[in-house]
TrEMBL record:
Signal sequence residues: 1-19
Alphabetic keyword roster: Carbohydrate metabolism, Cellulose degradation, Glycoprotein, Glycosidase, Hydrolase, Polysaccharide degradation, Signal
Protein name: beta-glucosidase
Pathway info: Glycan metabolism; cellulose degradation
PANTHER family: BETA-GLUCOSIDASE (PTHR42715), BETA-GLUCOSIDASE F-RELATED (PTHR42715:SF2)
GO molecular function: beta-glucosidase activity
Claim: Membrane is one of the keywords in the record: no
The family this protein is said to belong to: Belongs to the glycosyl hydrolase 3 family.
């Protein structure tokens, strides 16, 4: 089996076209890397020009961690340890040991004298990747569609329990970037939907759940990784740089960084940077993003890691605020070459990287380890992401490796199948249901069409990291996947449930079928996407080839079924929107069900809804347009350009419903749309003012103190090879052959704008997530929901904000700000939900003031719209009068 890792290796070799780093001689490699490093780091390389107005200003030095109250104890413990560490131990924890140099997809070095093992970093956002006996949960997009915060937390908790059970220290999820700006983008499905608030709640509930188990969660990818193609630098530098996502400051704050603020607010332990540049500066060494926004403005106290092989410079990334290099190799893996490891030792000894910076990196890592209690009985990895065998090489990337027990096959699934099923079911979104065609009777005569209803005949895990689209689509492809322990296919579940089922597994409509009156056709179609290291049916991660069209001629299959049968139900498994116009208005297409990406519980969760055991309660986490051209052209996949592809987010705040609303374009199905088998009414709507509005938030508090260490450069002997040490060739160590020869007189040109005096504390900061006042509740909205129909069901209430009409800030007409879901309500049952509107929810990011500003008006109100989709807003409350009324004209078409 070609693992993802070995794929990366192969691809890196293929890409290493200029042969700069080819010699197999270890010592020569080291010298060569140091030489290359010296030249690359001499200045932070100028990337291609970005369009005017998109800037990545320098922001130095890195703000030290430890000043936030909720981390004080962990930093105190970490400081005691770090003060006694050797240079080698410090470097060890910051640097990966190299690709395939340990059991996990990423492994750090250790500091065993202090009980700190090699830390295990492992994907994914929906399960424990590349292993056995673990749950394949529904994807983020399915979870987003539940609009259920409790389920988001439950999934995070179960994920964390499984990660801990396998000995994963740092889980590489949740994914909250990409945000879903591009409907064709490859990895939007890993996250929760095309809206920052939905992503924010999805991410932060997941993190709270994961971290409650002591696992360190990683939010990724910071930031602007909205398309897969051209995402990475192709080594060596200069040939083709990673795509530059050009994002203006306000859009960055109000859309793309917003969910990262939420993640930091709830104390996430790790952040992964993106492959791409932002405004012409690589995210792994973009000082404005890491030092300025993450660590100063958002007060992030944990550790910042690279995406895999995304590091492009050693000193430059250290100065810009990076804390951990993953998987440790330079941009061409498996050569024993690194930007950090031994080279970080050199850079500290020669004074290029201030010792203070290394101390901060390692303190952040050790403090995070303490913060989640990993010093207490935390298991070591009991699996290998590299092999399914019980024993094998400990370091498959080494030429000669000792042998290890690689897999203990620990079953960590617990009762998580029910968590998975609850979410897959509750994410199912009923978009159309004419004549109450659904739910079905178990006695109905059912004709099922499409290979998508069954399992991949080659096996549910036949394609590496699900990099094929054969059979039921339970997840997209790439590192955001997990192996299925089982995959309950829809056809099997339907056959278990219904008495009279005929299955036609072809994607071409079979000839010679006679449809009898009363027959019901269910047609399964799908649309897939994933990560750029695989091309599936011509799609390079993004849906660049297929567009928003169902795969395998799904449209033709639906049309053919609709020509034959009077009643057709279409079931779609998809990574994101598809255009349904070719058939949605055909008279026999009565029902349309989006089951998103259900994971292992695809079958049962679907039949729970199809046969009416549960009423559907999912809502669309994105809009479905009538035509893809309804979106702005700037959100299309950007094609090849020599040297560096520029992706300019010129639509600003106007993505998805924000754009459609502004331009008066009615979607086929609006963001939030989702039908039920029952009906609900809303009553007793009240708006309560909690905190008086003020334009600016109250001033932030001053920063607390951070650990202080000796600034004396440590003795070079601390990074000499230990006597009698038997090195694994290609494993990345902190050691140097002749550390005493390192001179401090190196002539290093620091990046433009580099300084060592701390920046003034940003007004928008003050705590984890930013100024804590941003989370002050300004208003609460309370709504009583009553089930007015005849079957049990759940309803969702969403609150959208409309800014005062005299505001001088150009702002989308409505923006989601909070949502809540009822419990299951029996007929006539009711429940009162309370939604909150915080200071941030009413603010815009003022690029001049560099602060969140509420456009307070004494004559024009904020209008808070209450409903369950952007197309279903007729109830509103106004901030000035606090009055709420129903029957208002919708603010959008
Ligand atoms: C992905 C990350 C992932 C990492 C490790 C990268 O290609 O972008 O999301 O965590 O690989 O597998």
């Amino acid at each position: 089996m070609l693992t993802f890792n070995s794929y990366l290796v192969l691809s890196a070799f293929v890409h290493s076209t200029l042969g700069l780093i080819q010699t197999p001689n270890f010592a020569a490699d080291v010298i060569r890397t140091q030489q290359l490093e010296a030249s690359w780091d001499a200045t932070i390389e100028k990337r291609d020009d970005v369009p005017a107005g998109y800037v990545a200003p320098p922001y130095y030095p890195t703000p030290k961690g430890g000043w936030v109250g909720s981390w004080t104890d962990s930093y105190a413990k970490a400081a005691k340890v770090v003060a006694n560490m050797t240079l080698a131990e410090k470097v060890n924890l910051t640097s990966g040991t190299g690709l395939l140099m340990g059991p996990c997809v990423g492994n750090t070095g250790s500091a065993l004298r202090f009980g700190i093992p090699n830390l295990c970093l492992q994907d994914s956002a929906l399960g424990i990747a590349a292993t056995d006996n673990a749950t394949a949960f529904p994807a983020g997009i399915t979870t987003g569609a539940t609009f259920n915060k409790a389920l988001m937390y439950a999934r995070g908790y179960a994920l964390g329990e499984e990660a801990r059970g396998k000995g994963v220290n740092i889980q590489l999820g949740p994914t909250i970037g990409p945000l879903g700006r591009k409907p064709r983008g490859g990895r939007g499905w890993e996250g929760f939907g095309a809206d920052p608030v939905l992503q924010g709640f999805g991410g932060s509930e997941t993190i709270k759940g994961m971290q409650a188990n002591g696992v360190i969660a990683t939010v990724k990818h910071f930031i602007g990784n909205e398309q897969e193609m051209y995402r990475m630098d192709i080594p060596p530098h200069g040939l083709m740089k990673a795509i530059s996502s050009n994002i203006d400051d306000r859009t960055l704050h109000e859309l793309y960084a917003w969910p990262f603020m939420d993640a930091i607010k709830v104390g996430v332990g790790a952040v992964m940077t993106s492959y791409n540049d932002v405004n012409g500066s690589a995210c792994s060494q973009n000082s404005k993003l890491i030092n300025g926004i993450l660590k100063d403005e958002f007060g992030f106290q944990g550790l910042v890691m690279t995406d895999w092989l995304a590091q492009i410079g050693g000193v430059s990334s250290a100065l810009a605020g990076l804390d951990m290099a993953m998987p440790g190799d330079g941009n061409t893996p498996l050569l024993g070459l690194a930007y950090w490891a031994y080279d970080l030792s050199t850079s500290v000894l020669n004074g290029t990287v201030p010792l203070e910076r290394l101390n901060d990196m390692v303190t952040r890592i050790v403090a995070t380890w303490y913060q989640f209690g990993q010093d207490q009985d935390y298991p070591l990895p009991n699996f290998s992401a590299n092999t399914a065998d019980p024993t094998g090489p400990c370091y498959p990337g080494a030429l000669i490796s000792p042998t290890c027990v690689t897999n203990e096959y620990v079953n960590v699934q617990g009762n998580h199948a029910s968590v998975a099923r609850n979410i897959s079911r509750e994410g199912i979104t009923l978009l159309k249901n004419d004549n109450n065609t659904l739910p079905l009777s178990t006695q109905a005569v059912l004709k099922i069409f499409g290979s998508e209803a069954q399992n991949n005949p080659a096996g549910m895990n036949a394609c590496n990291q699900r990099s094929c689209d054969t059979g039921i689509l339970g997840m997209g492809w790439g590192s955001g996947t997990a192996n299925y322990p089982y995959l309950d296919a829809p056809i099997d579940a339907i056959k278990r449930k219904a008495a009279n089922v005929t299955y036609y597994s072809s994607d071409s409509f079979p000839s010679g079928i006679t449809a009898l009156s009363g027959d019901i056709a269910i047609v399964f179609i799908n649309s897939d996407s994933g990560e750029n290291q695989y091309t599936v049916e011509g799609n390079h991660g993004d849906r660049d080839a297929s567009g928003l069209v169902s795969w395998h001629n799904g449209d033709a299959l639906v049309q053919a079924a609709a020509a034959k049968y009077a009643t057709v139900i279409v079931v779609v498994h998809t990574v994101g929107p598809i255009v349904v116009e070719p058939w949605i208005n055909l008279p026999s297409v009565k029902s349309l069900v989006f089951a998103h990406l259900p994971g292992q519980e695809a079958g049962n969760s679907l039949t729970d809804i199809l046969f009416g055991d549960y009423s559907p309660s999912g809502h669309l986490p994105y809009s479905i347009p009538v035509a893809e051209s309804d979106y702005p052209s700037s959100i299309g996949i950007v094609g090849f350009e020599f040297f560096q592809v520029q992706d300019t987010f010129s639509e600003g705040l106007y993505i998805d419903y924000r754009y459609l609303n502004k331009n008066g374009i009615t979607p086929r199905y609006a963001f939030g749309h989702g039908l039920s088998y029952t009906t609900f009414s809303k009553s007793s709507i009240t708006l309560t003012a909690v905190t008086p509005l003020s334009t600016l938030p109250p001033a932030r508090a001053a920063k607390g103190s951070t650990p202080v260490y000796s600034t004396a450069i440590p003795p070079a002997s601390e990074v000499a090879w230990p006597t009698g040490f038997s090195a694994i060739w290609r494993y990345l160590y902190p050691y140097l052959d002749d550390p005493a020869s390192i001179s401090s007189a190196i002539n290093f040109t620091y990046p433009v704008g580099y300084q060592t005096t701390p920046q003034p504390a940003p007004a928008a900061g003050g705590d984890e997530g930013g100024n804590p006042a941003l989370w002050d509740v300004m208003f609460t909205l309370s709504v009583t929901v009553t089930n007015t129909g005849s079957v049990a069901g759940k309803d969702t209430v969403m609150a959208f904000v409309q800014y005062p009409s005299d505001s001088s800030y150009d702002t989308p007409i409505i923006q989601l700000r909070d949502f809540e879901k009822t419990d299951t309500l029996a007929p006539q049952g009711s429940q009162t939900l309370t939604l909150s509107l915080t200071r941030r929810d009413l603010s815009v990011w003022d690029t001049t003031k560099q602060n969140w500003v509420i456009p307070v008006s004494s004559s024009e109100p904020f209008v808070f719209w209450v409903g369950n989709s952007t197309a279903n807003l007729t109830i509103a409350c106004e901030s000035l009068s606090k009055a709420c009324s129903a029957g208002r004209p919708s603010p959008v078409v």
